[in-house]
Design brief:
Pfam families: PepSY_TM_like_2. This is PepSY domain-containing protein. Keywords: Membrane, Transmembrane, Transmembrane helix. It is built from five helices and five strands; from the N terminus they run H-E-H-E-E-E-E-H-H-H. The protein has about 190 residues and is α+β, with helices and mostly antiparallel strands. It has two domains: about 110 residues, no CATH class; about 80 residues, no CATH class. The protein has a five-stranded antiparallel beta sheet, with helices on one face. Helix 1 packs across helix 3 and helix 1 packs across helix 4. The longest helix has about 40 residues.
Protein backbone atom coordinates (compact mmCIF):
# COMPACT_ATOMS: atom_id res chain seq x y z
CA UNK A 1 0.00 0.00 0.00
CA UNK A 2 2.82 2.40 0.84
CA UNK A 3 4.29 2.02 -2.67
CA UNK A 4 0.88 2.67 -4.21
CA UNK A 5 0.51 5.95 -2.27
CA UNK A 6 4.07 6.96 -3.19
CA UNK A 7 3.43 6.12 -6.86
CA UNK A 8 0.16 8.06 -6.84
CA UNK A 9 1.83 11.08 -5.21
CA UNK A 10 4.72 10.88 -7.69
CA UNK A 11 2.32 10.83 -10.64
CA UNK A 12 0.30 13.71 -9.15
CA UNK A 13 3.39 15.89 -8.68
CA UNK A 14 4.68 14.86 -12.11
CA UNK A 15 1.43 16.05 -13.72
CA UNK A 16 1.60 19.40 -11.90
CA UNK A 17 5.26 20.01 -12.74
CA UNK A 18 4.83 18.75 -16.30
CA UNK A 19 1.82 21.01 -16.90
CA UNK A 20 3.33 24.16 -15.40
CA UNK A 21 6.73 23.82 -17.08
CA UNK A 22 5.03 22.98 -20.38
CA UNK A 23 2.99 26.18 -20.24
CA UNK A 24 5.99 28.24 -19.15
CA UNK A 25 8.31 26.96 -21.89
CA UNK A 26 5.74 26.68 -24.71
CA UNK A 27 6.97 29.94 -26.25
CA UNK A 28 10.53 28.64 -26.33
CA UNK A 29 9.40 25.34 -27.85
CA UNK A 30 7.63 27.26 -30.63
CA UNK A 31 10.66 29.52 -31.21
CA UNK A 32 13.02 26.56 -31.58
CA UNK A 33 10.52 24.51 -33.61
CA UNK A 34 9.72 27.25 -36.15
CA UNK A 35 13.30 28.45 -36.52
CA UNK A 36 14.50 24.84 -36.68
CA UNK A 37 12.19 24.09 -39.61
CA UNK A 38 13.43 27.18 -41.45
CA UNK A 39 17.07 26.33 -40.69
CA UNK A 40 16.54 22.78 -41.97
CA UNK A 41 15.59 24.31 -45.32
CA UNK A 42 18.27 27.04 -45.52
CA UNK A 43 19.13 26.00 -49.08
CA UNK A 44 15.62 27.00 -50.25
CA UNK A 45 14.54 29.57 -47.62
CA UNK A 46 16.74 32.46 -46.55
CA UNK A 47 15.72 32.86 -42.88
CA UNK A 48 16.95 36.44 -42.66
CA UNK A 49 15.99 38.03 -45.97
CA UNK A 50 13.49 37.82 -48.77
CA UNK A 51 15.32 38.26 -52.09
CA UNK A 52 13.58 39.82 -55.10
CA UNK A 53 15.55 39.60 -58.34
CA UNK A 54 14.75 41.90 -61.26
CA UNK A 55 16.52 41.76 -64.64
CA UNK A 56 16.14 44.65 -67.08
CA UNK A 57 17.86 46.65 -69.82
CA UNK A 58 19.18 50.14 -69.13
CA UNK A 59 17.88 52.72 -71.61
CA UNK A 60 19.70 55.77 -70.22
CA UNK A 61 23.06 56.76 -71.67
CA UNK A 62 26.00 55.68 -69.56
CA UNK A 63 29.63 56.71 -69.60
CA UNK A 64 32.30 54.04 -70.18
CA UNK A 65 33.79 52.25 -67.16
CA UNK A 66 36.71 54.70 -66.87
CA UNK A 67 34.35 57.69 -66.73
CA UNK A 68 31.76 56.20 -64.35
CA UNK A 69 31.28 58.48 -61.32
CA UNK A 70 29.05 58.30 -58.26
CA UNK A 71 26.54 60.74 -59.84
CA UNK A 72 26.22 58.43 -62.87
CA UNK A 73 25.53 55.48 -60.59
CA UNK A 74 22.92 57.47 -58.65
CA UNK A 75 21.11 58.17 -61.95
CA UNK A 76 20.96 54.38 -62.55
CA UNK A 77 19.53 53.86 -59.06
CA UNK A 78 16.83 56.56 -59.35
CA UNK A 79 14.28 54.42 -61.30
CA UNK A 80 14.66 51.75 -58.60
CA UNK A 81 14.11 54.27 -55.79
CA UNK A 82 17.49 53.30 -54.32
CA UNK A 83 19.56 56.46 -54.94
CA UNK A 84 19.49 57.33 -51.21
CA UNK A 85 20.73 53.84 -50.29
CA UNK A 86 23.98 53.97 -52.30
CA UNK A 87 27.06 52.91 -50.33
CA UNK A 88 29.72 52.20 -52.98
CA UNK A 89 30.41 50.67 -56.37
CA UNK A 90 33.31 48.85 -57.97
CA UNK A 91 34.24 46.91 -61.11
CA UNK A 92 34.89 43.19 -60.41
CA UNK A 93 35.60 42.57 -64.12
CA UNK A 94 36.05 44.59 -67.28
CA UNK A 95 32.73 46.31 -68.17
CA UNK A 96 30.97 44.90 -65.13
CA UNK A 97 29.91 47.17 -62.28
CA UNK A 98 28.52 46.14 -58.92
CA UNK A 99 26.70 48.68 -56.77
CA UNK A 100 26.24 48.04 -53.04
CA UNK A 101 23.20 49.46 -51.29
CA UNK A 102 22.24 49.88 -47.64
CA UNK A 103 20.47 46.84 -46.23
CA UNK A 104 22.34 44.36 -48.44
CA UNK A 105 20.61 45.02 -51.78
CA UNK A 106 22.79 45.37 -54.88
CA UNK A 107 22.79 46.19 -58.56
CA UNK A 108 24.99 44.41 -61.10
CA UNK A 109 25.39 46.13 -64.47
CA UNK A 110 27.07 44.81 -67.62
CA UNK A 111 28.26 48.09 -69.17
CA UNK A 112 28.82 46.58 -72.64
CA UNK A 113 25.35 44.99 -73.02
CA UNK A 114 23.53 47.45 -70.69
CA UNK A 115 21.87 44.53 -68.94
CA UNK A 116 21.25 44.96 -65.21
CA UNK A 117 20.29 42.66 -62.35
CA UNK A 118 18.82 44.25 -59.25
CA UNK A 119 18.57 42.16 -56.08
CA UNK A 120 16.45 43.70 -53.36
CA UNK A 121 16.82 42.26 -49.88
CA UNK A 122 14.01 42.71 -47.38
CA UNK A 123 14.45 41.54 -43.80
CA UNK A 124 11.98 38.87 -42.69
CA UNK A 125 10.82 40.40 -39.39
CA UNK A 126 9.57 37.36 -37.47
CA UNK A 127 11.54 34.46 -38.92
CA UNK A 128 14.89 36.32 -38.81
CA UNK A 129 14.33 37.21 -35.14
CA UNK A 130 13.44 33.60 -34.26
CA UNK A 131 16.50 32.32 -36.13
CA UNK A 132 18.70 34.81 -34.30
CA UNK A 133 17.48 33.39 -30.99
CA UNK A 134 18.11 29.86 -32.26
CA UNK A 135 21.73 30.80 -33.04
CA UNK A 136 22.17 32.16 -29.49
CA UNK A 137 22.68 35.95 -29.65
CA UNK A 138 24.52 36.38 -26.37
CA UNK A 139 25.44 35.26 -22.89
CA UNK A 140 22.12 36.23 -21.30
CA UNK A 141 20.33 34.04 -23.83
CA UNK A 142 22.73 31.17 -23.12
CA UNK A 143 21.65 31.19 -19.49
CA UNK A 144 17.95 31.22 -20.37
CA UNK A 145 18.46 28.50 -23.02
CA UNK A 146 20.25 26.36 -20.40
CA UNK A 147 17.29 26.78 -18.04
CA UNK A 148 15.02 25.84 -20.95
CA UNK A 149 17.09 22.69 -21.63
CA UNK A 150 16.85 21.64 -17.98
CA UNK A 151 13.10 22.37 -18.15
CA UNK A 152 12.80 20.06 -21.16
CA UNK A 153 14.58 17.30 -19.26
CA UNK A 154 12.19 17.71 -16.35
CA UNK A 155 9.17 17.80 -18.69
CA UNK A 156 10.40 14.58 -20.32
CA UNK A 157 11.05 12.74 -17.05
CA UNK A 158 7.73 13.81 -15.51
CA UNK A 159 5.96 12.81 -18.72
CA UNK A 160 7.50 9.34 -18.51
CA UNK A 161 6.27 8.63 -14.98
CA UNK A 162 2.88 10.34 -14.83
CA UNK A 163 0.90 7.70 -16.77
CA UNK A 164 0.59 4.19 -15.38
CA UNK A 165 -0.71 0.94 -16.78
CA UNK A 166 -0.74 -0.28 -20.39
CA UNK A 167 -0.44 3.27 -21.79
CA UNK A 168 2.46 4.16 -19.48
CA UNK A 169 6.20 3.55 -19.51
CA UNK A 170 5.86 -0.23 -19.13
CA UNK A 171 3.30 -0.47 -21.96
CA UNK A 172 2.67 1.46 -25.16
CA UNK A 173 4.55 4.50 -23.81
CA UNK A 174 7.72 2.43 -23.42
CA UNK A 175 7.46 1.22 -27.02
CA UNK A 176 6.99 4.81 -28.24
CA UNK A 177 9.95 5.91 -26.08
CA UNK A 178 12.21 3.19 -27.51
CA UNK A 179 11.12 4.03 -31.06
CA UNK A 180 11.72 7.74 -30.49
CA UNK A 181 15.25 6.99 -29.29
CA UNK A 182 15.96 4.44 -32.03
CA UNK A 183 15.06 6.69 -34.99
CA UNK A 184 17.67 9.42 -34.25
CA UNK A 185 20.27 6.71 -33.51
CA UNK A 186 19.61 5.10 -36.89
CA UNK A 187 20.08 8.47 -38.61
CA UNK A 188 23.24 9.06 -36.60
CA UNK A 189 24.89 5.73 -37.38
CA UNK A 190 23.57 4.97 -40.88
Amino acid sequence: MKFSKTGTALRKWSRLIHRDLSYFFSGMVLIYAISGIVMNHRNTINPNYSVERQEYSITETMPPQAGMKKDDVLKLLAPLGEEKNYTKHYFPKENQMKVFLKGGSNLMVDLSTRQAVYEKLTRRPLISALTKLHYNPGRWWTHFADVFAVGLIIITVTGLVMVKGPKGLWGRGGIELATGILIPLLFLFL
